[in-house]
Structure to design on (57 residues):
Protein backbone atom coordinates (compact mmCIF):
# COMPACT_ATOMS: atom_id res chain seq x y z
CA UNK A 1 0.00 0.00 0.00
CA UNK A 2 1.19 3.52 -0.75
CA UNK A 3 2.27 5.79 2.07
CA UNK A 4 -0.38 8.32 3.12
CA UNK A 5 0.60 12.00 3.45
CA UNK A 6 -1.24 14.67 5.41
CA UNK A 7 -2.05 18.13 4.00
CA UNK A 8 0.69 20.64 4.89
CA UNK A 9 3.32 17.88 5.09
CA UNK A 10 6.39 18.52 2.92
CA UNK A 11 6.50 16.41 -0.24
CA UNK A 12 9.39 13.92 -0.13
CA UNK A 13 9.22 13.42 -3.91
CA UNK A 14 8.00 15.61 -6.78
CA UNK A 15 5.00 14.25 -8.63
CA UNK A 16 1.25 13.73 -8.80
CA UNK A 17 -0.48 13.23 -5.44
CA UNK A 18 -4.02 11.85 -5.42
CA UNK A 19 -6.56 12.99 -2.84
CA UNK A 20 -7.85 10.20 -0.59
CA UNK A 21 -11.21 10.52 1.15
CA UNK A 22 -11.71 10.34 4.93
CA UNK A 23 -12.41 6.60 4.74
CA UNK A 24 -9.44 5.93 2.40
CA UNK A 25 -11.49 5.93 -0.82
CA UNK A 26 -9.67 7.13 -3.94
CA UNK A 27 -11.14 10.27 -5.50
CA UNK A 28 -9.31 10.44 -8.84
CA UNK A 29 -8.44 14.08 -8.14
CA UNK A 30 -4.69 14.82 -8.29
CA UNK A 31 -2.40 17.71 -7.38
CA UNK A 32 1.12 18.33 -8.71
CA UNK A 33 3.58 19.01 -5.89
CA UNK A 34 7.31 19.78 -6.02
CA UNK A 35 9.75 18.11 -3.62
CA UNK A 36 10.14 20.15 -0.42
CA UNK A 37 6.88 22.07 -0.90
CA UNK A 38 3.87 21.52 1.41
CA UNK A 39 0.91 19.49 0.19
CA UNK A 40 -2.04 21.85 -0.42
CA UNK A 41 -5.13 21.99 1.79
CA UNK A 42 -7.84 19.56 0.62
CA UNK A 43 -11.36 20.65 -0.37
CA UNK A 44 -12.91 18.70 2.56
CA UNK A 45 -11.75 17.95 6.10
CA UNK A 46 -10.19 14.54 6.72
CA UNK A 47 -8.77 14.08 3.21
CA UNK A 48 -5.16 12.99 2.71
CA UNK A 49 -2.79 12.27 -0.21
CA UNK A 50 -0.87 9.38 -1.79
CA UNK A 51 1.88 9.65 -4.38
CA UNK A 52 0.63 8.07 -7.60
CA UNK A 53 3.19 9.25 -10.19
CA UNK A 54 6.69 10.37 -9.21
CA UNK A 55 8.40 12.89 -11.49
CA UNK A 56 12.01 12.62 -12.61
CA UNK A 57 13.76 15.98 -12.92
Amino acid sequence: MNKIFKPGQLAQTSGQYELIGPRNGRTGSERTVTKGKPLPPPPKAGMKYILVDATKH
Q: What stands out?
A: The chain has a mean pLDDT of 92.
